[in-house]
Amino acid sequence: MSSVYPSKSTPPTDAPEIVEFDNYVAHTLKATKPLPPMRWSNLVNELNWLSTAILTIVPAMSILGFLTTKLRWETALFAVFYYYVTGLGITAGYHRLWAHRSYNASKPLQYFLAMAGAGAVEGSIKWWSRGHRAHHRYTDTELDPYNAGEGLWWSHVGWMLLKPRRKPGVADVSDLSKNEIIRWQHRHYLTLILSMGIGVPTVIPWLFWGDLRGGFFYAGFARLMFVHHSTFCVNSLAHWLGEAPFDDKHTPRDHVITALATIGEGYHNFHHQFPMDYRNAIKWYQYDPTKWFIWVCYQLGLASHLKVFPDNEVRKGQLTMQLKRLRETQDQLAWPSDNNDLPVISYESFVEQSAKRPLILVAGFIHDITNFIEEHPGGPHYLVKYVGKDATTAFFGGVYDHSNAAHNLLAMKRVGVLHGGLPTGLQEKAIPPSQRLKVARYAELSATSANSSGGSEHDGEKESSPPPA
């Protein structure tokens, strides 16, 4: 999300800069100099005094109100209501409508959101959206105005208190410059923040239930403090707390706590993957009042063209991360020796070696069952009588239809491959169940395909294929 007021060192940009470089971020960092590192000695000169003043005065006035003014229940309810009004001006207006163009809004709705957003005192639509588009384009880089890589405090509030070490990356806001309502708000912004930020929340409690001081302190300043930090949590908490169910390339995370703190903007991993979707939460039970507000406006004819990313592509993102997690779990497990790493043993040698140690033959593989004879659930005698013999039929249902666990454990005891392989038709059975759906990277599949097309002796999956018949 974005901040309180623009810094003089970061003016809005109306049109994108055309750069003929492969990596704009790397080129910009190389070609431009950042401001000197922050020191205690230069702190006074490096403060963004306008933002610092606002972010200091607002909580100070809130504390003063808590200490000097009784909170009436009518004022408390109105403060909560006005928190949502001005918060939705940011989430449904500044963020999803103007920064991301996730739906179209009628003029009455645009005027309402522009005024409500001004009541949150976070800068004009044009300035706010310019910073937020830069955040999405350069996430987690030095050109991201609230780079989460600089730490939780920096991304929450530090980047507003201090002058940015670098100018935020270029972002196109030419579409916003053409919008008459955005131009109107930008032109009258000071009047709007004074009237919507302090005037309205003070006057309404005064006129309807005679609570001038309560409206001023609670619905005005205390409400404003909560709106500020609700918005700031999207820059900080949403890049720190939770999971990444769609992509973990960058820091955005999904978490219900962040959603509760930000009027529904807490499913941030989804949002960074599909920023033009009008939803943050895609499941009906997830907390996203901003989505519900937009949907209600759509039902009333005040909004249209609600953009929803194709469900098929959303599910691909989820599946990608699920497979990645499975691969990580898979890589932590021990697996049977690769077929190509096992010695090829003749049947005569197998029988001869079985006289020295308990070996059995199952599906073309020779297994050493030394440490399992006494552990066999059916009793040791069933195994002993197959030492030095082919137990394939017995293992695959002739005596007992063994479980997946039995198949997986047996494969871990492979010590050799029988010369000549196994009868045709048992190849698939020879693959342990845990390996039949084993997650493989594209490079591994390509290598396997290349080996197969090259007439390799061992076709199929390198790790799990049985020896050739």
Please explain how this structure is put together.
- The protein has 469 residues and is mostly helical.
- The protein has two domains: 297 residues, no CATH class; 115 residues, Flavocytochrome B2, Chain A, domain 1 (Roll).
- Helix content is 50%, strand content 4%.
- The chain has 21 helices and six strands.
- Strands 3-6-5-4 form a four-stranded mixed β-sheet.
- Helix 4 crosses helix 6, helix 4 runs parallel beside helix 11 and helix 10 packs across helix 11.
- The longest helix is centred in the first third of the chain and has 27 residues.
- The chain is elongated.
- The two termini are 62 Å apart.
- The C terminus is likely disordered.
- InterPro entries: Acyl-CoA_deSatase_haem/ster-bd (IPR009160), Acyl-CoA_DS (IPR015876), Cyt_B5-like_heme/steroid-bd (IPR001199), Cyt_B5-like_heme/steroid_sf (IPR036400), Cyt_B5_heme-BS (IPR018506), FA_desaturase_dom (IPR005804), FADS-1_CS (IPR001522).
- Stearoyl-CoA desaturase that utilizes O(2) and electrons from reduced cytochrome b5 to introduce the first double bond into saturated fatty acyl-CoA substrates.
